[in-house]
Amino acid sequence: MRTSDRLGLKLPFSDDFYNIQDFNDNFETLEKDIEEVEGRVKQSATEAITTFDWLAGQPGVTYEVVPQDNGSYDKWLETLTKDNSQIARRASTESRDGWTVEVELTLPGKAKVSQMTTWTETGDVWKGVTA
Q1: Which residue, 3, 20, 103, 104, shows the most beta carbons closer than 10 Å to its own?
Q2: CA-to-CA distance for 127 and 47, rounded, in angstroms?
Q3: Distance between the two ends of the chain, CA-based, in angstroms?
């Protein structure tokens, strides 16, 4: 039997005896890694929104919000600029089912970060799903 390079999954050879515990161990390893990746994705989404809000309050950063759709607040665009350069943008759109919020961060020396979160209300609870 050998193991995979990345996750250490048990990979029996074709002439090895089949062991159900090896199969179960492999699936437990996969579930653990998937859960870890999901956690990092959720953390990244939260960080983009939090970073936008934090940047908006920093010295030298200009915050501007422009209503879209003939002046209503059903859709708006928020921008952050510093030294005449846009460093962040957040577009929010209200729909019948909830809100869609798209955040784009362009920070000096960093790769551009984008995220879109759709918020829906069920009863009194809001749930955000990040794509």
Answers
A1: 103
A2: 17
A3: 39
